[in-house]
Design a protein that fits this description.
454 residues; alpha/beta; seven-stranded mixed sheet; 8 helices; 17% helix; globular
Length: 454
């Protein structure tokens, strides 16, 4: 359920639980929407619950109020009485969360009884994106963890909630479709981060843009009454465990470019800083410094030039090729595998239907300019050409043998050279800096590796 740039399967690991008397730092990757909710609802926040007694606990959302109304939060139930009744009547047992050995009973009080003395917050969440907002909603939802909002603080270094989404290229859309299914199936909108909310309802969009999704997150924060718990323009520079709690050193940007540094203390920290602001752009190919990463593009239509080379052929690369073609620009895509012909049972390892459908549109007979798709290639280096432009040097890999269903049509190479012998070289020239469509390193690997044991 990720945007058209990266797709990650559900991790099989979590940050390990600390020994008794040590602070607990948990992590949300920060980009996965339904994943953010699933993980945030399974956080073992021991200090907010009595010791686990070995019993199985099932958590229901039978009284969850839909968070889809616009306007004043106090009017959130107006016009949604029918939907609420349907949510109550149409329970699906498959949605019950079996928390045996995973989650503690939550302290029903939810409020501070003095244990927060000396702390700035019981829980500090780093990042006000999808994972951060989703986690905060779950923590403060009376039907989930039930903490008072005053005990949770969200730190966001951007100027708005969902700031990373607002830096997406204008043409980029979610590859997972949004649909408001809650009225009759009680299932989630794939792109929601809180039970009872739906980007499809809020935005009336099936494949939201980044800016639209940021609007959804901001409205959700208001409806869930956590908007005023978000500290904007506040960058976390260091996190230090001290005597069973965390000291979180931050740098806050004030008016006229002035900044101030302070230290916030919390019992728990949730890392939800995301991936989009941490692109993989320096470790992929020699000469990568001559390229630009696709996340740096504000709009494919307004990007200077009309002929581009794209390095990387998964969601990011194909999305770039599609949007350039629709903008009337030529592109040559160099991929390590002909991903457009891959068919697997794991949806994270083949192109999404949304992406494949758009690629078929721009490679159809009669469409112009059609992108050139070259695979399987290993890009070796990028060189600046003395007369202007750049050479992208690649070598052919072994031929691929795809097993494709009879109901699928493969996309043959479009307008490119016939695949060469394994190991032979191909050089593609481009007048513009090549575009790296190579994914993201992520904030944990880039900025917080030392905080986790894995």
């Amino acid at each position: 359920s990720l945007p058209a740039r990266i797709q990650v399967p559900l991790p099989s690991w979590t940050a390990p639980a600390p020994p008794p008397q040590q602070p607990a730092l948990t992590m949300l990757v920060g980009v996965s929407m339904t994943l953010a909710l699933q993980v945030s609802m399974a956080l073992a926040l021991q200090a907010m619950a009595p010791p686990w007694d070995g019993h199985r606990h099932r958590h229901h959302h039978r009284h969850a109020r839909p968070l889809m109304a616009a306007g004043d939060p106090d009017d959130a139930d107006v016009g949604l009485a029918l939907l609420t009744r349907l949510l109550d009547e149409d329970r699906d047992p498959a949605l019950e969360i079996d928390t045996t050995g995973v989650i503690e009973d939550v302290d029903a009080r939810g409020s501070d009884d003095g244990t927060d003395a000396g702390l700035d917050a019981a829980v500090l969440i780093v990042g006000a994106g999808a994972a951060g907002i989703g986690c905060a909603v779950s923590l403060t939802d009376s039907d989930v963890f039930g903490l008072e909002a005053s005990r949770v603080t969200i730190l966001e270094r951007g100027d708005t909630i969902g700031a990373s989404f607002r830096t997406w290229p204008e043409e980029m859309r979610f590859i997972s479709p949004s649909f408001n299914q809650a009225g009759w199936t009680n299932s989630f909108d794939l792109n929601s981060v809180a039970h009872g909310s739906s980007p499809a309802y809020t935005l009336h969009a099936q494949h939201p843009s980044g800016a639209q999704y940021a609007d959804y997150l901001a409205e959700l924060a208001g409806l869930a009454r956590i908007r005023d718990r978000v500290q904007l323009r506040t960058e976390v520079v260091r996190i230090v465990p001290v005597d069973g709690v965390f000291d979180v050193h931050v740098r806050a940007r004030c008016a006229e470019g002035v900044s101030r540094e302070e230290t916030l203390r919390a019992r728990y920290v949730v890392w939800a800083a995301g991936e989009f602001q941490y692109p993989r752009e320096s470790c992929c190919v020699a000469g990568a410094e001559l390229c630009m990463h696709n996340s740096r593009v504000r709009s494919w239509a307004s990007l200077p030039g009309d002929d581009f080379v794209l390095i990387g052929g998964y969601e990011s690369g194909v999305d770039a090729a599609v949007n350039l073609a629709k903008a009337g620009k030529q592109s040559t895509l160099l991929s390590s595998s002909a991903t457009w012909n891959v068919q697997t049972a794991d949806p994270s390892t083949e192109l999404s239907p949304y992406t494949a459908e758009r690629l078929r549109d721009v490679t159809a007979a009669g469409f112009s300019p059609r992108p050139r798709l070259l695979a399987p290639l290993r890009v070796v280096r990028v060189e600046r050409v003395e007369g202007g432009g750049f050479h992208v040097v690649a070598t052919w890999k072994a031929a691929e043998d795809f097993q494709v269903s009879q109901h699928r049509k493969t996309l043959a190479e479009i307008g490119g050279a016939t695949a060469g012998a394994e190991g032979s070289e191909v050089v593609v020239h481009t007048p513009q800096p090549p575009v790296l469509c190579t994914g993201f390193e992520g904030s944990v690997a880039s900025a917080a590796r030392d905080l986790f044991h894995f």
